[in-house]
Amino acid sequence: MEESLSPLVSVVIPSYNRAALLPRAITSVLTQTFSDLECIVVDDGSTDQTEQVVAEFQDPRLRVIRLPDNGGGGRARNTGIQVAHGELVAFLDSDDEWLPRKLERQVARLRECGDPMATVAYCRCMVRDTLAGRMWRRPHRVYEGDVFSYLLEGWNPTTLSLFLVERRSLLAVGGFSETLPSAQDYDLWLRLAEASYRFVATDEVMVVKHEYSDNQISDDPTTPVITSEILDCRWGPAIRRHLGWAGYRRWRRNRWNIAQWAHFRRIKIAVAHNRRIEAWRHWARMCRLLPYSRRYVCGAFLMTALGFRCYYLLVHAVDAVRRSVRHPQSATTT
């Protein structure tokens, strides 16, 4: 049976030198229980074997758009939106993967909502830390309907891979910003919510986000600093108008926390590969941003001093104590 020439869902996977990871992402799309889709890989000027890897998939729903040079995630995703044939556009990062019923559940959620302004659907994900062998669920909280105030407060679901959006609303707000070095998704959700588009949630894990499986743009600590200043210029007045100066200061503090997290990621990778001197240098840079994110600074100090294995033995022990305090009955019966 031939696939529809105009599928309901277009899946956009931007990729830059991710040939080793792409097969997992593509496979998770092509094996969805919802099959009325096309999968668009936007090769953002890769210099690896991306084209050959995609060509190995014998599926007519899959195609590649090759860009002449690397222009960043915003441009790559906008290219995917422009060439998409579907009414709905889903985004998948090349290092993430979907669970089989992800699209089925989200399409059904949008259809059953009944609100014509509900054009954005998202779900939860499981974050898998491949270095430390840990997993946790994100986001902590899910919101539906008018989420503008939550976004202004700093709420931002973990990854674009969670989202399915009506193409018309993406085009209406101009798609992704191509001037932001990161957080293009956060800026887009703010613009969609400000334009009165509503969000709906599938309150279950439908995505696996893989951490530390490859280099990411957010690993560069200067990137979130530059991004924060651009976002402040764009959204600072709206934040102060809706949340006051206290809310604005909290938002600024959260943005600096993201910069500290980027430093922490670099320290984690350095310590895992026994590059202690490099780790201490990054830790000294973290101290320049104090008093923001003292928790990250302390955690990075302990990791560098104790070593990767000892630090995570301590982390796992603390996690076990917390679980026993929260669920004392289950702890005594296991």
Task: State the share of residues found in helices, binned by percent.
Answer: 40-55%
Strand content: 15-25%
Write down the overall geometry: globular
Structural class based on helices, strands and sheet pairing: alpha/beta
What is the average of the pLDDT values? Answer: 89
Determine the CATH superfamily of the largest domain: Spore Coat Polysaccharide Biosynthesis Protein SpsA, Chain A
CATH architecture of the largest domain: Alpha-Beta Complex
Question: According to CATH, what is the topology of the largest domain?
Answer: Spore Coat Polysaccharide Biosynthesis Protein SpsA, Chain A
Query: What's the alpha carbon Rg, rounded to whole Å?
Result: 21 Å
Low-confidence stretches: 330-334
Main β-sheet, in a few words? Answer: 9 strands, mixed
The domain count comes to: 2
Would you list the SSEs in sequence order as H and E? EHEHEHEEHEEHEHHEHHHHH
Helix segment count? Answer: 12
Structure summary, number of beta strands: 9
CATH class descriptor name of the largest domain:
Alpha Beta
- End-to-end span in angstroms? 51 Å
Note the topology.
Elements: E1 9-15, H1 22-30, E2 37-44, H2 50-55, E3 62-67, H3 73-83, E4 88-91, E5 96-98, H4 102-113, E6 118-129, E7 134-138, H5 148-152, E8 164-166, H6 167-172, H7 184-194, E9 198-211, H8 222-272, H9 276-287, H10 294-306, H11 308-326, H12 328-333
Parallel strand pairs: 1-2, 1-4, 2-3, 6-9
Antiparallel strand pairs: 4-8, 5-9, 6-7, 6-8
